């Protein structure tokens, strides 16, 4: 998971805005290139550079000056001296594009650049000034055909779409207008055009240090299949930890701004978390009841994994295993637990691949006796529940989820040795 330090440019200075409000600006420096060197020295693998001054309005004259050989001078009408290509660029380029060029000269770190890109000429100019990829925002809503043209010309690795949302609806024109387009709907539309990566920003959290919108970020990556770069609200290392735990929901990275500028997040530490191997710890129950003196076990069918499994779920931060197991069982099955046998504990370790991500899994199961009642499936991935005897449980798990067999074996051995 890539950590992107943000360098937001307004009138050539490095600034941060709260919720995109130009009136709520904090200036962090007059030398964005020096700021880029600072983040690169701390290990930044990418930089996220944003133009906050509105539409770029690239011209063919600017592009021509960029390509003009340095030994060719042009005498403009009314000027006393011929002008070099560098002088033409200095005169013609908006100040934030000059800053982009300076950042490119200052560091070798790849640059992701967005803000004010409305035309193919804008995109071309930004890429040729040093951006490795660009983020298209307003134009993706107003002119999706241009997104298709850009993808055909430069490829999906260099064209990213920015989905900036307020209360789930896409905002445009520097967040000053809110459309009626749903963020998930726009994600589906962009994926259909060939976009593979988006930046998702929760505007209400941007610059507020109020915590990232983990649920919406995860959902966008999950339901669309797009790689999602999270943005807005990162307050500290806990947000990076939480995003890392959801990386397999196609969370490709996270943009960090206010937190690294104010010191509430250490960039080097965040990068270490981003590089950490994926590990998911879950807890659940091996639910049983007696029927005519013989134990029956409850299995749920998980559509996502296409397997039968004992009820389980990921542990929350600072949550103990039994609490997690009981919480997940109540959510997934809707039954009451008569007793948890903590002495019958099974800890399973195995690797899985989820959405192309390799994940080390640890699942802890506790044997639990369940009270009579009607099963109420509470998770969208579960479509069927069965009470089965030990032989059928063995067969179903062997066919679909053999890694869970040790938990069943431990339960059977415990029940054979203890009168429950």
User: How many whole angstroms does the radius of gyration measure?
Assistant: 27 Å
* Main sheet: strand order: 1-4-5-6-7-10-11-12
Given the C-alpha coordinates, what overall shape results?
elongated
- Portion of residues within helices: 25-40%
What's the end-to-end separation, in Å?
47 Å
The tally of helices reads 15
Q: What would you call the structural class?
A: alpha/beta
Q: Tally the beta strands.
A: 19
- How much of the sequence is in beta strands? 25-35%
Uncertain spans: none
Largest sheet: 8 strands, parallel, barrel
Mean pLDDT: 90
Write the SSE topology.
Layout: E1 2-10, E2 13-18, E3 21-29, H1 32-41, E4 47-51, H2 60-67, H3 85-92, H4 95-106, E5 111-114, H5 120-128, E6 133-136, H6 138-142, H7 144-154, E7 159-166, E8 169-172, E9 177-182, H8 183-193, E10 197-202, H9 214-224, E11 227-231, H10 237-245, E12 251-256, H11 258-262, H12 267-275, E13 279-291, E14 294-302, E15 307-309, E16 312-314, H13 321-333, E17 337-354, E18 357-370, E19 382-389, H14 390-400, H15 405-417
Parallel strand pairs: 1-4, 1-12, 4-5, 5-6, 6-7, 7-10, 10-11, 11-12, 13-18
Antiparallel strand pairs: 1-2, 2-3, 7-8, 8-9, 13-14, 13-16, 14-15, 14-19, 17-18
Helix pairs in contact: 1-4, 2-3, 2-5, 8-9, 10-12
């Amino acid at each position: 998971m890539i950590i992107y330090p943000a360098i937001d440019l307004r009138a050539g200075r490095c600034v941060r805005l709260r919720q995109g409000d130009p009136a709520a600006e904090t200036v962090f420096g007059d030398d964005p290139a020096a700021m880029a060197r600072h983040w690169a020295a701390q290990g930044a693998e990418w930089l996220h550079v944003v133009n906050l001054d509105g539409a770029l309005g690239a011209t063919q004259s600017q592009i021509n000056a960029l390509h003009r050989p340095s030994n060719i001078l042009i005498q403009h009408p009314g000027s006393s001296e011929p002008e070099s290509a560098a002088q033409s660029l200095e005169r013609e380029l908006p100040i934030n594009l000059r800053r982009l060029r300076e950042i490119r000269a200052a560091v070798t770190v790849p640059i992701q650049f967005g803000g004010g890109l409305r035309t193919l000429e804008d995109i071309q100019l930004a890429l040729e000034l040093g951006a490795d990829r660009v983020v298209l925002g307003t134009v993706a809503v107003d002119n999706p055909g241009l997104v298709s043209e850009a993808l055909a010309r430069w490829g999906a690795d260099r064209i990213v779409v920015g989905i900036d949302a307020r209360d789930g609806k896409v905002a445009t024109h520097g967040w000053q207008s809110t459309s009626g387009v749903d963020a998930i709907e726009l994600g589906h539309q962009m994926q259909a055009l060939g976009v593979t990566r988006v930046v998702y920003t929760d505007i209400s959290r941007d610059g507020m240090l109020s915590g990232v919108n983990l649920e919406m970020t995860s959902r966008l990556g999950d339901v669309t299949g797009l790689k999602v770069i999270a943005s807005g609200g990162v307050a500290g290392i806990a947000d990076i930890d939480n995003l890392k735990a959801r990386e397999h929901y196609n969370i490709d990275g996270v943009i960090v701004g206010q937190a690294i500028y104010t010191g509430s997040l250490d960039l080097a530490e965040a990068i270490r978390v981003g590089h950490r191997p994926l590990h998911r710890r879950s807890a659940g129950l091996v639910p049983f009841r007696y029927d005519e003196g013989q134990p029956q076990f409850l299995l749920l069918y998980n559509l996502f994994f296409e397997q039968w499994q004992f009820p389980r779920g990921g542990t929350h931060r600072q949550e103990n295993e039994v609490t997690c197991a009981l919480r997940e069982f109540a959510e997934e099955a809707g039954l009451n637990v008569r007793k948890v046998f903590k002495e019958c504990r099974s800890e399973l370790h195995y690797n899985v691949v989820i959405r192309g991500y390799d994940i080390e899994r640890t699942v802890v199961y506790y044997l639990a006796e369940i009270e009579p009642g009607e099963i109420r499936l509470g998770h969208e991935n579960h479509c069927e529940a069965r009470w089965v005897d030990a032989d059928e449980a063995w067969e179903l798990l062997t066919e679909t989820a053999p890694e869970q067999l040790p938990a069943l074996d431990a339960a059977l051995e415990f029940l054979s040795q203890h009168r429950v």
